[in-house]
Amino acid sequence: MLFQLFCAGAVRAAEVRVSAAASMAEALREIAAAYTQMSPAEVVIANFGASGALARQIEQGAPADLYLSANAQWVEYLIAAGRIAGEDVRTLAGNSLVFVGRSGLEVTTLADLSALGRIALVNPRSAPAGEYAQQALDAVGVYAALAGKLVMAQDVRQAVVYADRGEVDGALVYKSDALLARQAVILHEVPAHLHNEISYPAALTTSGRNNPNAVAFFNFLQSDTARRILHSYGFIVEEEVLPQMTKDQ
């Protein structure tokens, strides 16, 4: 019995719990797989969702060693709540915003969305993707006019699914998520100047910084290997860490 308890404790000590924006799901799973190949005794347990919802969970005491957000706002929220130390924050990547929908639709600017029917948008109150989309629509003066056509999704993955299934004419989502769509295609790339810069900060939580396994994985997230994986999923990373990659890789 004592041996079993010791083993159970060892397994728990090797766990790294990560709360990450839903748009990072596929990339983070591959990064975690690459990491555990190097450190097979460690287990990365990921919880994906809207950045705001995850931040509130952490604030309320949900177990998490690392937090990966789709904007800096929610990291600052957790710093103010005492759940993250400001010096434990690093920006991993960037992203862009696109409109996806069925092939054949004519969408050359966001103003063209006024001629469409239902449009999926991530809820701006819970996820950064919705905030960026609202900023862009406001910038071209069509957000208020589209209010009756907007279908609010919980996160970017749900918005892509709506577009894939044809339940909406299209959706405003991150490019990294759009590349995972099965049916919907990218119809328009939103100019970056229409919204705040899209960045993905990662941070150790106050409990995570005391977990050496979490610190090790946090460092791996900043490695060239991790950045190349992020790049392969459509995220924007520093070009200097990708010297051997081509557009086809």
UniProtKB/TrEMBL annotation:
Enumerate the residues binding molybdate.
Answer: S23, S51, A129, V156, Y174
Q: How does it assemble?
A: The complex is composed of two ATP-binding proteins (ModC), two transmembrane proteins (ModB) and a solute-binding protein (ModA).
InterPro entries documented for this protein? ModA (IPR005950), ModA/WtpA (IPR050682)
> Which GO biological process annotations does it have?
molybdate ion transport
Keyword Nuclease assigned: no
Query: What's this protein's family per the entry?
Result: Belongs to the bacterial solute-binding protein ModA family.
Highest taxon of source: Bacteria
Q: Which GO terms describe its molecular function?
A: metal ion binding; molybdate ion binding; tungstate binding
Species the sequence originates in: Geoalkalibacter ferrihydriticus DSM 17813
From which residue to which does any coiled coil extend? none
* SUPFAM superfamilies attached to this UniProt entry: Periplasmic binding protein-like II
Alphabetical keyword list: Metal-binding, Molybdenum, Signal
Q: What is the lineage of its organism?
A: Bacteria, Pseudomonadati, Thermodesulfobacteriota, Desulfuromonadia, Desulfuromonadales
Q: What is this protein called?
A: Molybdenum ABC transporter substrate-binding protein
